[in-house]
């Protein structure tokens, strides 16, 4: 069984890789087992550096590459008649601190009948759907990008 132990920031053009679809729950773990579409079992023992986002790459020590994609899973889809209604639902769901995926026309969260009733009570439409789940990382989640201010933004912060 191949064991993937490294996260890759980027992959060269022309790189050869296999793909695996994983649920959000599995993509949150640093250690897991999975079966590729060709039937081969793989294992992962990755550094604990946050969620594997859809489109992430991991590698074995031998340099074999695997792309991780979000697997469609059962979700609640919230839609509204107006952008403001959708914004209001995002606010109320965000207050419950549940993983929430935002799109311009819908919100998605893992099945929860209490939250579904709350959203329906706000006058929004809710349905169950199979969809890849890529929730927002949240303001305090680990990020892989640099938070230092550019010189121009730094000047703006000093003067305001």
From TrEMBL:
Main location, first listed in the record: cytoplasm
SMART domains named in the record: UreE_N
Keyword check for Cytoplasm: yes
Keywords, alphabetical: Chaperone, Cytoplasm, Nickel
Domain UreE urease accessory N-terminal per the UniProt entry, residue ranges: 1-66
Listed name of the protein: Urease accessory protein UreE
Origin organism lineage: Bacteria, Pseudomonadati, Pseudomonadota, Gammaproteobacteria, Moraxellales
SUPFAM superfamilies in UniProt: Urease metallochaperone UreE, C-terminal domain, Urease metallochaperone UreE, N-terminal domain
Single GO cellular component term: cytoplasm
Annotated function: Involved in urease metallocenter assembly. Binds nickel. Probably functions as a nickel donor during metallocenter assembly.
Family as reported in the entry's similarity comment: Belongs to the UreE family.
GO molecular function: nickel cation binding; unfolded protein binding
InterPro entries per record: UreE, UreE_C_dom, UreE_N, UreE_N_sf
A matching Pfam family: UreE_C
Annotated compartments: Cytoplasm
NCBIfam families xrefs: PRK13261.1-1
Gene Ontology biological process terms in this record: protein folding; protein-containing complex assembly; urea metabolic process
Entry keyword Cytoplasm: yes
């Amino acid at each position: 069984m191949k064991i993937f132990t490294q996260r890759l920031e980027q992959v060269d053009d022309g790189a050869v890789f296999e793909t695996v679809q994983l649920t959000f729950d599995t993509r949150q773990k640093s250690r897991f087992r999975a079966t590729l579409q060709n039937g081969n079992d793989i294992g992962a023992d990755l550094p604990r550096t946050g969620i594997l986002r859809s489109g992430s790459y991991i590698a074995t020590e031998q340099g074999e590459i695997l792309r991780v994609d979000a697997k469609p899973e059962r979700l609640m889809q919230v839609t509204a008649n107006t952008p403001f209604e959708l914004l209001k639902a995002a606010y109320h769901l965000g207050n419950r601190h549940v993983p929430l995926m935002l799109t311009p026309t819908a919100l998605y969260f893992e099945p929860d009948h209490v939250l579904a009733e709350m959203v329906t009570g706000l006058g929004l439409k809710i349905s169950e759907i199979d969809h890849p789940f890529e929730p927002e990382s949240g303001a305090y989640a680990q990020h892989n990008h640099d938070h230092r201010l550019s010189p121009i933004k730094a000047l703006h912060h000093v003067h305001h």
